[in-house]
């Protein structure tokens, strides 16, 4: 690669699926240079991806090792940490853009400056046949005659396309050497917000959109969607070479489960500015957003039950279900004076007092909301009690038995008395 000239380093990832969860990162030694994700791609089959990353090397990058990392961010239920695979490290020589005899030294070689802040950069050479040095730029250009040093100094950098380039004019060939400054002008997002549907359906894919306004440069922007403290997905824009502030709307597909009802979602916009940038990377968060998840009712107990009660006794039949919106309950059975329905705190009951054979049947409970219905059947059996006739006969039998025994005792005593006389 040539100093000051943009080159592409391409990460080639083969036979990976699903691509929507793929994140590809380029590292220079331990420093992450770029991150590319594919959340908008719904392909389910294994694919091959060539991911280009633009790199503008400096003199210090000569001999640096570059590595590509492919990571599957599978989200909830996936393995932790996320599975990843690394390429073998690659060393790429860096040469002077003009020729080996050109000697242009820029210090610092890479500058990261916030829009509107001051910036100062030195340029010098060790050549002796110098006619002059200077800076070509759309703001504060410099031209120093008979000088080996030129300083580019801007009190407030408010131009996005400055593109400063240091030049050295010499008497001998090459008569002019030039090197472009690796300059990054950045701006924090003006605003970041979430755009989401009023509700999501369980098991149905919905889209939550992160809207990032007035941020630059896009190529260093990384946008992440969080559910609570869990990162769901990450999107980057390393292929975007726009220098000016842009607005980005990033859609993230989400397929909610029942447990996601009431979860808080947050969008985080991060500027990964690389060498010379702020540490930690500057970021801005959206206000958290709760999105209801709707689903049809689901019974909290068995769908079929068999219960018994003795004749004349009491029993309570219970029916409860979980759903969003909360379900309404309807019981189906022949109405009776000794049966009462009560619904409280999400539980519906049928209370039966003085049970009789007329209450013996199947009681159907229907839990309903807008998205479906769950049905429970409770079969009630009334066991026969001890009939009153039997009780009366039993009492009569006991009385008769006592009378017979008493009569025999009396008769026996009288006989004994007569025999004595």
TrEMBL record:
Residues 297-381 form the Ig-like domain. Keywords: Cell adhesion, Disulfide bond, Glycoprotein, Immunoglobulin domain, Membrane, Repeat, Signal, Transmembrane, Transmembrane helix. SUPFAM superfamilies: Immunoglobulin. It is found in: Membrane. Its main location: membrane. It is a single-pass type I membrane protein. The chain crosses the membrane at residues 388-411. It holds the Pfam family Ig_3. Belongs to the immunoglobulin superfamily. ICAM family. This is Intercellular adhesion molecule 1-like isoform X1. It comes from Huso huso.
């Amino acid at each position: 690669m040539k100093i000051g000239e943009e080159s592409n380093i391409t990460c080639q990832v083969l036979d990976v699926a699903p691509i929507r969860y793929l994140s590809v990162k380029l590292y220079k030694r331990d420093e992450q240079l770029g991150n590319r994700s594919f959340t908008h791609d719904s392909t389910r089959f294994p694919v091959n991806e060539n991911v280009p990353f633009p790199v503008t090397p400096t003199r210090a990058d000569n001999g640096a090792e570059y590595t590509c990392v492919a990571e599957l961010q599978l989200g909830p239920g996936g393995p932790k940490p996320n599975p990843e695979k690394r390429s073998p490290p690659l060393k790429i020589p860096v040469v002077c853009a003009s020729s080996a005899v050109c000697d242009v030294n820029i210090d610092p070689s890479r500058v990261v400056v916030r829009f509107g802040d001051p910036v100062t950069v030195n340029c010098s050479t060790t050549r002796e046949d110098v006619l002059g040095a200077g800076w070509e730029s759309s703001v504060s250009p410099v031209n120093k005659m008979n000088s080996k040093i030129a300083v580019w100094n801007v009190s407030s950098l408010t131009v996005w396309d400055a593109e400063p380039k240091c030049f050295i004019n010499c008497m001998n060939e090459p008569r002019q050497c030039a090197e472009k400054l690796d300059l990054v002008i950045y701006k924090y997002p003006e605003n970041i917000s979430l755009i989401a549907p009023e509700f999501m359906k369980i098991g149905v894919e919905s889209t939550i959109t992160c809207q990032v306004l007035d941020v630059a440069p896009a190529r260093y922007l990384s946008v992440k969607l969080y559910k609570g403290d869990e990162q769901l997905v990450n999107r980057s824009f390393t292929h975007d070479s726009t220098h000016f502030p842009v607005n980005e709307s990033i859609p993230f597909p989400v397929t909610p489960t029942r447990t996601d009802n009431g979860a808080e979602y947050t969008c985080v916009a991060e500027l990964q500015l690389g060498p010379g940038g702020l540490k930690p990377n500057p970021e801005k968060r959206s206000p958290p957003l709760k999105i209801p998840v709707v689903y049809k009712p689901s019974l909290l107990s068995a769908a079929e039950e068999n219960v018994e009660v003795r004749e004349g006794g009491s029993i309570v039949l219970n029916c409860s279900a979980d759903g969003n919106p909360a379900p309404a309950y309807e019981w189906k059975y022949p109405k009776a004076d000794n049966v009462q329905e009560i619904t409280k705190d999400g539980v519906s009951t049928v209370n039966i007092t003085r049970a009789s054979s007329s209450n013996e049947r199947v009681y159907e409970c229907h839990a309903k909301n807008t998205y479906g219905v769950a049905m429970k059947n409770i079969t009630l059996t009334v066991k026969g009690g001890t009939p009153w006739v039997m009780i009366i006969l039993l009492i009569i039998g006991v009385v008769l038995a006592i009378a017979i025994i008493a009569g025999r005792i009396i008769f026996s005593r009288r006989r004994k008395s007569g025999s004595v006389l």
